[in-house]
Amino acid sequence: MNVEEEVGRLREEIKRLGKLQSDGSYKMNEQNVGLDCVVKVTFGTLFHDDQCANIFEALVGTLRAAKKRKVLTYEGELLLQGVHDNVEITLNPTPAAAAAN
């Protein structure tokens, strides 16, 4: 799997682990409605998820690549398990979805 494919898979996994909020954004732990809006999940949720562990050989590297491509945002440069489990990762809307709003 190349970097672009991994970033795409990461986007889908963040959506899977997110939940819809009353303001139209997502947070973790409730079923998604399938909208392409702001999605948030903690690093700990991603890191400890079995499905993510099976997909991503280097989750931190994939997160850094996605951040560099402005697919998502989070505080800091390097996320470490345990220390940064509560850091919120925000999935940015796709350019097509942002243009529609």
TrEMBL record:
InterPro entries, sorted: Costars, Costars_dom, Costars_sf
Gene3D superfamilies in UniProt: Costar domain
Pfam family, one: Costars
BP GO annotations: regulation of actin filament-based process
Domain Costars: 1-92
Family as reported in the entry's similarity comment: Belongs to the costars family.
PANTHER family to which the protein is assigned, alphabetical: COSTARS FAMILY PROTEIN ABRACL (PTHR46334:SF1)
Protein name as annotated: Costars domain-containing protein
Source species: Pisum sativum
